[in-house]
From TrEMBL:
InterPro entries tied to this protein: Ald_DH/histidinol_DH, Ald_DH_C, Ald_DH_CS_GLU, Ald_DH_N, Aldehyde_DH_dom
EC number(s) from the headed UniProt entry: 1.2.1.3
Positions of the Aldehyde dehydrogenase domain: 19-475
Keyword Kinase found: no
Organism: Povalibacter uvarum
Broad class of enzyme this protein falls into: oxidoreductase
Active-site residues (renumbered): 250
Pfam families associated with the record: Aldedh
Keyword terms, alphabetized: Oxidoreductase
SUPFAM superfamilies, sorted: ALDH-like
Family: Belongs to the aldehyde dehydrogenase family.
Single GO MF descriptor: aldehyde dehydrogenase (NAD+) activity
Protein name: Aldehyde dehydrogenase (NAD+)
Amino acid sequence: MKQYDHYIDGRTAQPSSGAYFPTDNPYTGEAWAEVARGNSEDVNEAVSAAKRAFSEGAWGRLTASQRGALMRRLADLIVEHAPRLAQIEQRDNGKLVAEVNAQVKYMAEYFHYYAGLADKVESHVIPTDKAGVFAYTRYEPKGVVAIITPWNSPLTLTSWKLAPALAAGCTVVIKPSEFTSCAILEFAELFKLAGFPDGVVNVVTGFGEEVGSPLVNHGAVAHIGFTGGEAAGIRVYEQAARGLKTVTLELGGKSPNIIFDDADLDQAIKGVVSGIFAATGQSCQAGSRLLIQRSVHDAFVARLIEFVRTIKLGDPTQPDTQMGPVATRPQFEKVLKYIEIAKAEGATCAFGGKPRSDLGGGQFVEPTIFTNVDNRMRIAQEEVFGPVLSVIPFENEQDAIRIGNDVLYGLAAAVWTRDLQRALLMSEKLKAGTVWINNYRATSFTSPFGGMKRSGIGRESGIDAIREYLDTKCVWMSA
Ligand code: NAD
């Protein structure tokens, strides 16, 4: 069985404990590799390497344009190694072949974007009220950054933090999810090939309490870029607060997908299906609450069920498969638990609702649609992170705004309507970091993404993201 070590200071490094843990293929249910089980000693080593690279090594002497050039070379290497990276991520996570290929390709574009942005962070000269004195700003890299990521889109979500952090001039220690570490370790080796100095990018694998926690608490870590669930996010935030560190937190969602009766319903159905069932529902931005105007509710639900009936479940490596397995065993069990909770709460299971033990290693759940959902039910309030849709009727715009906002989360929302005034009103009133009008899931490296309310703090992507990794200094000059 293949064995993966940490990646520290430009080379692979065995765990100081000597321990490894298995990683499974969610389609077959079988372990296919062993991964280093890190601890605080490994974290200390990685942070020391990142600190040296930041303050003593060649990295700190590079101009922003030179950093950009290295990142462009890395982007080209991502393209060259894309098939291998995609295959490993698929084996670890169970993503569909088309999805993982597109994500790896997009990753390269992400690095190109931030390579271009590296030398476009401009300072300002500030007129002051003191004669003969002026002030200017400097935007300086924060230093060593911890990147902690979940299992649902490991390469993408790591790149969302890594590319702006490197463009800003930081060095990093990555702690991937214990369920999906392998593609990140393979990816880390490309940095050496691209010519990055040793220690700029390090990876320590293992569990949240054993690696994530000591990394967040390490005195030399200045900023934490975290994507994951709310509970771990709060824990990271509390620990960071003790060291007065800054954080970017990308957490959960319970996003409303709102269909008005004047919408193009053919387009809306496609948006609803991809909104919730893409990535087997394991996406923070999933449109897990479908709000339908009552006048079209019954007809829309009937058409939706006919559409969902055609979704082909199965082997994610096959190009005609449309929905793969749930990525981890605990997540599979959690999704089934929520299906039982919804039934017990009185929601109607209008489609699906069962595990599919006949497929692969058995970690499949049918695409599931619950109707007669009240927005106060747990199935409408809590993040399931699986292929489970809650359908809730509404009367008018005010009702849709009230229900749409009546959750603790505020990551994303979508509105389907042909009425421009209505679209503008909804985009203003919905409390979410992203609002899509007549589409679902559009994201780009150019556009800020992040949550309001309990969905997170700070922004990833676009120009906003590089600021997360920079400190502002003001220099006062007297002649
Ligand atoms: P998780 O919170 O269990 O784990 C995320 C990461 O945090 C893992 O690497 C884990 O090992 C680490 N971790 C756990 N406890 C820690 C601690 N005390 N200190 C430091 N690190 C710790 O999340 P998950 O189950 O891997 O991922 C699913 C969650 O991620 C969902 O809630 C989903 O909404 C969220 N997510 C959010 C976004 C977004 O952009 N908002 C994107 C994808 C996923």
